[in-house]
Amino acid sequence: MEKTDLLMQAKTALLAPTGLDEHGLEQVLDRMLSRQVDYADLYFQYQRHESWSLEEGQVKSGSYNVDQGVGLRAITGDKTGFAYSDAFELNALLQAADAAKTISQQPGEAGQAIHWDGKAPTVLYAPINPIDSLGAAQKVALLEQVEAEARAQDPRVVEVMAGLVAVQEIILVAGSDGRLAADIRPLIRLNVSVIVEQDGRREQAGSGGGSRCDMDYFLQQERALGYAREAVRQALVNLEAVDAPAGNMTVVLGPGWPGILLHEAVGHGLEGDFNRKGTSAFSGRIGERVGSVGITVVDDATLPSRRGSLNIDDEGTPGQRTVLIEDGILVAYMQDCMNAKLMGAVSTGNGRRESYAYLPMPRMTNTFMLAGTQSHEEIIKSVGRGLYAANFGGGQVDITSGKFVFSASEAYLIENGQITAPVKGATLIGNGPDVLQRVSMIGNDLELDTGVGSCGKDGQSVPVGVGQPTLKIDSLTVGGVQI
Amino acid sequence: MESPASQAVVQSHDMKESTDQWQQQMLELAVQVLDKAASAGASAADVTLNRGTGLVTTVRMREVETVEHTRDKSLVLTVYFGHNSGSASTSDFSAEAVAGTLQAACNIARFTAVDEDNGLADAELMATSQPDLELFHPRDISVAYALQQSLDCEAAALDHDHRIVNSEGASLQTHLGVGVYANSHGFVGSTRATRYSLSCAVVGTSNTKITSPAGMQRDYWYTASRCFEDLQSATEVGLLTARRTVRRLDSRKLSTRQAAVLFEAPVASSLIGHFLSAIRGGALYRKASFLQDCLGQKIFADWFHLYERPHLLRAMGSAAYDDEGVATRDRDLVTDGVLRSYCLSSYSARKLKMSNTGHAGGPRNIILQPGNEDFQGLLRTMDRGLLVTELIGFGINGITGDYSRGAAGFWVEHGEIQYPVEEITIAGNLRDMYQHIVAAGSDVDLRGNIRCGSLLLENMTIAGA
Questions:
Q1: Do A406 and A365 share a domain, yes or no?
Q2: Of A188, A221, A239, which residue sits at a domain end?
Q3: Tens digit of pLDDT for each residue in A58-90?
Q4: Are residues A252 and A230 in the same domain?
Q5: Are both A119 and A256 inside the same structural domain?
Q6: Mean pLDDT value across residues A393-414
Q7: Which end of chain B is more exposed for a tag (fewer CB within 10 A), N or C?
Q8: Do residues A243 and B130 touch, judged by C-beta distance below 8 A?
């Protein structure tokens, strides 16, 4: 796929209906440049979103949503003026430009020629509309198969809920420095949640997956049915779970989704905005040791078809692979254009926004730790008494104090090197700048999550990926009830 | 070049005029959409339209950071063909986009299964009056004035203590919105509302050299209201932010133990929030609630009364009708500690074979009857234990009630705060926790949809060092 094709397709979808062309974009940018601003940009977005949901054995509801608009931004130093328009007509954009430019009171130099320069991103996913990749009847049938598979696993399954979501996002970024870039982003997700019951005790568990591709993905390798089996397996484990222990102990984290640890404990703290402002527990610590020898953490937007991957970020910068921690040493922050400029760095392609109605800021893409050398079995065997956390729900971090939490959804006791009784989900709490220094063993079994993660920051949600190999942390606080 | 102030006045004038215009257009559009849905063969339909505009100004370290002019606009349509339904939404109100939305909703309805419980709420439940709940207080707020408020607020925080060394800024937000809901029973409702808030977050350090991030703490405060004049002053918000931040400096970790826990009012409302989630129809008909089949049962102590008052003037949660047009009314959810009512929409009520309680969109203005003791009194009653001022994480299992969350706060001895604590968790089971709430404070937090004072729990497990 040529970049000109992406740009052409985006122009056809976003600009052509109202007759906008490069000249129109120049007029709107010029309106903002009539004040003294360092940079101005336009973000055109069209998003269609379809979802179907099943419960009680039937697909009873579905919805189709369309949202579109243009975000206009004028930046001077660390100040940003922002306005948006849900109309794509030139006059509406000029009005929004007038609102955005008021951030600067000084007259600027309007009338400068803009030399458009389309950047050529590597194409990581096909520019398709995944909503059309499967007929409505087949989507309904897929969800029905998922529910049948879940029920077939075990008679203790009393309720199955499943949801199928497909999104297509078409964006075009036009900047006053001449950048003109476009992306067409497909995104699909299937979630299954089951309730199981035994002797009056009820437990719930969920599973799912997704990708930036068409819906055939769920049919390949029985992926969708696999999510159903996994949800039932976890729920049945939880039926047997006893109260979790409370206090400091050795914790082994399983591979894959438990990488949410990295996302919360270090990922957010390495976002450029917090570090420019000096409000992160990692501020000013580039070059310092923040993890054990052997720990390398990357943020990689360039993995083909992954949920967190981006051909270009929402400022038109190509998606990149950025090493954040190398062999335990903090080496880089994640940057968008404005924070990079203010810190004397360059954008790492992490400028993301939920939609045209929000300002971009530094956000993660796919964040994971590279594999080590030890086997999963060796790591478990090395623990006398501790907790093995195989799966997690959500997490959260206080950027400034560095304290982070994440909640286990499937966990077991480790006794004498053996995984024993399942324990109820407990919240784990730690300190971001310390926790990776307490990692004493790194598995050879790196896995990425299955593609269901969303990250929230300042009220903006974006799709992300996480991953890690099995990890042994020598001391972490486990928030159970059993003392 | 116009000054920001004069420009904002023009905008505000436009805003008021456009509110009337919007409301008129949206009412007409709602009726048109329902007509078209009927022509397309739908046996019933409903439509929700929203349109709004606002201003967000943010300052940081005494400088302007962002000025955002916000707008929002949406049309959500649901069509019913007998008991099959489909929904679609758009942010574009053009005739073409609306026709596309109707078609998309009809297409979906062709493939969804027959569900006999599906449909509009019963016609006789529709609200027959729409009293003025005083939610609409438009006010001319210029960008310059908004920025000055934000600057004054942050300055009050920064100037309060030399240990306040950094800031995440202060922000004033305004919003003005118009909403229309109409359905094929002939119900047409419309609302106008404003919302203002001012918030501030600063960073303190016990280590006065800012070169080291170790020992940094942040905290925040906000004020929110329907009416700008009802906000706490900028200086007050700044001062509270600074005091809350400084008191967290030199936090320690507690050892693992069992102790009494006092939830400060702003976080205590989350315990009521978990209760409301558990008595929601959606959780109940899926049998996914830890309060399954608990109607009429004693959940809290005798003194515990929880009321819903949807018609409070100027309140954040007030509404004359719910998201299905059903008249809202005063309701006692808990009296004498006993659960008296669930919160049901038309769908969940039919599923449960119970009566609709007008809760589509959730409960509105939940009030816990305040106790006699103020915050200091509760500290004395607790004598020894943990005061929780912040909770993080999502460790709540709605089906079992198991509860485990990250916490920060203060250790209390002899009824007095001793030192700040952090990096601990508190854990228990909500059923059990609710039974052991021994007191509610008179220090009611009025800012949100849940109004309650601080809550004292007899005993929880604290995990730490």
A1: yes
A2: A239
A3: 999 999 999 999 999 999 999 999 999 999 999
A4: no
A5: no
A6: 94
A7: N
A8: no
Measure Cα distances from A265 to A270, A352, A400, A401 in Å. Answer: 10, 20, 12, 11
**pLDDT of B1 over the 60 cut:** no
Residues of chain B with CATH 3.30.2290.10: 4-246
**Are A445 and A406 in a shared domain?**
yes
- The mean pLDDT value of chain A amounts to 95
User: Is a pLDDT exceeding 70 seen at residue B11?
Assistant: no
Contact B288 A204 (CB under 8 A): yes
Q: Per-residue confidence at B13, pLDDT binned at 50, 70, 90?
A: low
Residues of chain B positioned with their CB less than 8 A from the CB of A78: 60, 63, 65
Measured over the CA atoms of residue A259, residue A260, residue A262 and residue A265, the dihedral's sign is negative
- Residues pairing with B326 in the sheet: B126
Assign B7 a pLDDT band (cuts: 50, 70, 90). Answer: very low
Q: A364 with A463, same domain?
A: yes
On chain A, the residues whose CB falls within 8 A of the CB of B218 are: 279, 398-401
Pairing of strands A465-468, A366-369: parallel
Average pLDDT, chain B: 94
Per the structure, the complete domain to which residue A164 belongs is given by 3-239
Residue A45 makes CB contacts below 8 A (sequence gap 6+) with A14, A67, A68, A69, A70, A71, A169, A170, A171, A355, A356
From A209, A239, A269, the end of a domain falls on A239
Please indicate, yes or no, whether residues A11 and A105 belong to a single structural domain of this protein. Answer: yes
The structural domain count of chain A equals 2
Condensed to tens digits (0 to 9), the pLDDT of residues B363-385 reads: 999 999 999 999 999 999 999 99
Q: Which residues contact A432 (CB under 8 A, 6 or more apart)?
A: A264, A265, A266, A269, A281, A282, A397, A402, A403, A404
Pairing of strands B331-335, B338-339: antiparallel
Q: What is the ipTM of this complex?
A: 0.94
Q: Report the pLDDT averaged over residues A127-144.
A: 97
- In a mutagenesis test of the B interface, which of A68, A339, A481, A483 is the best target, namely the one with the most B β-carbons within 10 Å? A481
- One domain, residues A178 and A250: no
Same domain (yes/no): A322, A223: no
Structure tokens at B194: 């404003």
Q: Which of B4, B212, B423 sits opposite A403 (nearest CB)?
A: B423
User: Domain containing A227 — which CATH number?
Assistant: 3.30.2290.10
Q: How far apart are CA A65 and CA A96, in angstroms?
A: 24
For A264, name the nearest residue in chain B, comparing CA atoms only. Answer: B393
Q: Is the pLDDT of residue A269 over 50?
A: yes
Q: Which CATH class is domain B4-246?
A: alpha beta
